[in-house]
Amino acid sequence: MKILAFETSCDDTSIALFEDDKLISMHTKSQIKIHNLTWWVVPEVASREHANVIFDVLADVLSDGEVELWDIDYIAVTTHPWLVPSLLTGITVASTLSQTLQIPILPIDHIQAHIFSNFLEREESEIKFPLCCLTVSGGHNEVYYMPDMWTREKLWQTQDDAAGEAFDKVAKMMWLWYPGGPIISKLASEFHWDSKKMFPRVYLEKSEFWFSFSGLKSAVKREIDTRWELTNEDKKEISFEFQSAVNEVLCYKLMEAAKQKWVSTILLAGWVSANDDLNMRIQQEATKIWLVFFAPAKKLYCMDNAAMIWILAYYKIKYGQFEEKIWTLEVWKW
Questions:
Q1: What is the pLDDT of residues 149-160, one digit of tens each?
Q2: Interior CA angle at 225 toward 224 and 226, to 5°?
Q3: Are strands 74-80 and 105-109 parallel, antiparallel or unpaired?
Q4: What are the sequence ranges of the domains in the chain?
Q5: How far is CA 274 from CA 93, 135, 299, in A?
Q6: Could you read off the pLDDT of 269-314 as tens digits, one per residue?
Q7: What is the spatial distance between Cα 37 and Cα 306, in angstroms, rounded to a whole number?
Q8: Cα–Cα distance for residue pair 113/253, rounded to 1 Å
Q9: Strands lying side by side in the sheet with 131-136
């Protein structure tokens, strides 16, 4: 069984080809250099870049895998949520191939795929249900309770910015580059003094799972404005203090969800799951209360990638969680 998977939800054009549970080929074309000019993803620009490269990426995947299009059994594609212009590029190509080749196409939920990225390079039996999962990226920030593989209960989400977006905007305040997460994490790791806790920890209601990072961003801006000129040491300190404020809240909310739902397993997913400090904090707290903690096996799987689209499609097929009569996609249905 060969599955061709497409991921174009934001600014990465990623296509992967799998045979059963074995990766044959995956290529991802990033747009980071283009969006560095604006410090943010411009949807129309992202969509155009997807259209410019998607057929080259597809050709590379098929060439590396030594596979022809008519050898494909299923197509999987991200259909929601995120940037509609970007999504439409992948959907258009995938649905055209589906109709031309007369093979089933599977619509994939982007956030659900991030959660399933934890199954990549792991045995299915390793991750036990019920569990709680924190999904945290540039466009989403939620805590989910999952009593089984196919049921998701959103416990709550951010009231304003997602943590990943806050990282990007704080990086922009300090005239750093996009995306902000990796550079802030790097600068924070180079700060070797004790925390002054100069920024607020915004828990809102501690027993609930709301998130809010707009006030924290404002606090960072006020601190930056008090310094006449940011030195490299200033940037390291602000990065460290900001990252600590974000990660303490994220870790606390995930632990609180696990306690209230009486689960023994917790997951982390999304772009910010690549943050080493966040992983360390969650692992330390999980160990204290005997929780089993999983994050994606590789940092590559934290980001937007076609492998996570494939793994969700693979399990949908395995457990009959889609209708094979689907041949075309209408994006507004999902």
A1: 999 999 988 888
A2: 90
A3: parallel
A4: 2-115+302-333, 128-296
A5: 30, 12, 5
A6: 999 999 999 999 999 999 999 999 999 999 999 999 999 999 999 9
A7: 26
A8: 22
A9: 151-157, 141-148, 131-136, 265-269, 292-294
Q: Which amino acid is at 284?
A: Q
The two structure tokens encoding residue 102: 């007369």
Q: What's the rounded Cα separation, in Å, for the pair 147 and 303?
A: 25
Tell me the DSSP string of 210-233.
Answer: -B--HHHHHHHHHHHHTSSS--HH
Q: State mean pLDDT over 123-131.
A: 96
Residue from 27, 280, 92, 272 nearest 170 by CA: 272
Q: Which helix (H) or strand (E) holds 237?
A: helix 232-261
| C-alpha distance across the termini of the chain, in Å | 25
315: left (phi over 0), alpha (psi -120 to 50) or beta: alpha
The reported pTM is 0.91
Give the helix/strand (H/E) hosting 247: helix 232-261
> Hey, is 80 helix, strand or coil?
strand
Contact between 278 and 251 (Cβ < 8 Å): yes
The CATH class of 2-115+302-333 is alpha beta
Can you say how many angstroms the Cα of residue 212 is from the centroid of all Cα atoms in its chain? 18
DSSP-derived secondary structure letter, 274: G
Render pLDDT for 28-72 as a digit per residue (tens, 0 to 9).
998 878 877 776 788 888 888 889 999 999 999 999 989 899 999
Q: Which of 27, 4, 25 is nearest to 76 (CA)?
A: 4
- Options 3.40.50.150, 1.10.3720.10, 1.10.275.10, 3.30.420.40; CATH for 128-296 is 3.30.420.40
2-115+302-333 against 128-296: fold identical = yes
At residue 315, what is the residue type?
A: Y
